[in-house]
Amino acid sequence: MSSPYSGATPVGSPQGQDPYGQGNYAVGPDEAYGEHSGNLGTPSTTEGRPDVEGTSVGQLFGELAKDLSTLMRQEVALAKAEVQAEAKKAGKGAGMMAAAAVAGFLTVLFLSNALWWALENVMDAGLAALIVAALWAIVGAVAFSMGKKKLQQVNPKPERTVDTLSDVPSALKPN
């Protein structure tokens, strides 16, 4: 029962049990994969260089494909992390702009009330509403300028990913 699939458990069956009564699925990694235990690395010489004398071209290409695959996965993960960081900055800037919009709405509301009260009463109530509206206008202006500054700091290009991707062609060239 030594096959690459002998460690698998069919869906719906308890761990280590064969649903057909044929045997036990619980197998160690050495039993399941034999000599291919997942360590395909090339041995190194004492100088630290790869010892490729006994290695076939197919194995070297296999290692190259594995290394390129790992490199691409790491680059995608790096790009994802950078984009998420920039999206957070953009979210904060958008939040400030939303606050500016709310403050602008309240400014219009209070200015409208102030004008109405000023025309109706000509005295204290209208003046109080005008003062409140002026305070909201100041809050709106401050929130807008802060939001604008945050949005200008957003860099949509993942800089570190671009830098490391530019190093890939030189890494593939022979020394």
Global shape: rod-shaped
**Topology, number of strands:** 0
First-to-last CA distance = 45 Å
What gyration radius follows from the Cα positions, in whole Å? 33 Å
Specify the biggest β-sheet: none
The helix-and-strand class reads mainly alpha
Order of helices and strands: HHHH
| pLDDT < 50 stretches | 1-11, 16-20, 22-39
Helical fraction = 55-70%
The tally of helices reads 4
Overall pLDDT confidence: 73
Report the portion of residues in β strands: under 5%
Keywords: Membrane, Transmembrane, Transmembrane helix
Pfam family, one: Phage_holin_3_6
Protein name: Putative Holin-X, holin superfamily III
InterPro entries: Phage_holin_3_6 (IPR009937)
Please summarize what this structure is:
The protein is mainly alpha-helical.
Tags for this entry?
transmembrane helix; transmembrane; mainly alpha; membrane; Putative Holin-X, holin superfamily III; disordered N terminus; 175 residues; Phage_holin_3_6
Question: Can you describe this structure?
Answer:
With 175 residues, the protein is an all-alpha fold. Among the domains are: 1-39, no CATH class; 82-154. The protein is built from four helices and no strands. The chain has helices spanning 29-33, 57-121, 124-152, 159-172. Helix 2 (57-121) packs antiparallel against helix 4 (159-172). The longest helix has 65 residues, at 57-121. The radius of gyration is 33 Å and the shape is rod-shaped. It starts with 28 loop residues before the first helix and ends with a helix. The relative contact order is 0.08. The model is unreliable at 1-11, 16-20 and 22-39 (pLDDT under 50).
